[in-house]
Amino acid sequence: MKPKKQTLDVRSISRFAIGAGAALGLVAATAGVSQAHTDVELRGGYYSDVDEGFIGGGLLTSMGSGWDFNPNLEWVLVENADYLTVNGDVHYDFTRDSSAPAVWAGGGVALLHTETDGPRSVSDTDLGMNLFGGIGAKHGSVRPFFQVKGTLSDESETSLALGLRF
Predict the structure, then answer these.
(1) For the domain with range 4-165, which CATH number is right: 3.30.450.20, 3.40.30.10, 2.40.160.20, 3.40.50.300?
(2) Are 148 and 136 in contact (CB under 8 A)?
(3) Rounded distance, CA 7 to CA 33, Å?
(4) Quick check: 95 pLDDT over 70?
(5) Residue 34: pLDDT above 60?
(6) In terms of pLDDT, which residue wins out, 131 or 12?
(7) CA 7, CA 4: separation in Å to the nearest integer?
(8) What is the mean pLDDT of the chain?
(9) Which range is least confidently modeled, 5-19, 67-81, 146-160?
(10) Of 5, 104, 116, 159, which one's alpha carbon is 20 to 30 angstroms from that of 51?
């Protein structure tokens, strides 16, 4: 399904906010229990298959020994449809113990949900796998990053993301 560019409306924003808040709250609570250091991130970028932008957010929690858990949500801005991905990503930071920028690669599970609006609404939920790599700043209260991701599923996708971690 290749939905068209979406204009922001209250219904879509509300659904996204509720879903994002619930997922991030659950992950934050889990991370808090383990007392791990957790950063919040905001991201935006481009999905190549639908030729549209996205906005999203996530958490970054150190799992130790160079490994990070990075659950995130991405809301692709398409017209007359909802397109949301929920990702459970894990990556390895190759430069954890150096002063060089963070360089990582990883993978994870992706849940992709699309639903067209209108009287003939069509809904599709697909399970996929993410493979990605990125580079970003390690130090400071605001740390920019760049990531390239491929999602393998029935509707495979490639995305580019720019983000900030806090």
Answers:
(1) 2.40.160.20
(2) no
(3) 39
(4) yes
(5) no
(6) 131
(7) 10
(8) 86
(9) 5-19
(10) 104
Measured distance CA(67)–CA(162) in Å, rounded: 21
Copy the structure tokens of residue 99: 């002063």
Average pLDDT over residues 74-84: 93
Q: Which residue matches tokens 């799992």?
A: 63
**pLDDT confidence of 26, banded at 50, 70, 90?**
low
Report the 3 state secondary structure along 34-102: HCCCEEEEEEEEEECCCCEEEEEEEEEEEEECCEEEEEEEEEECEECEEEEEEEEEEEEECCCCCCCCE
Q: Give kind and range of the element (H or E) at residue 26.
A: helix 10-34
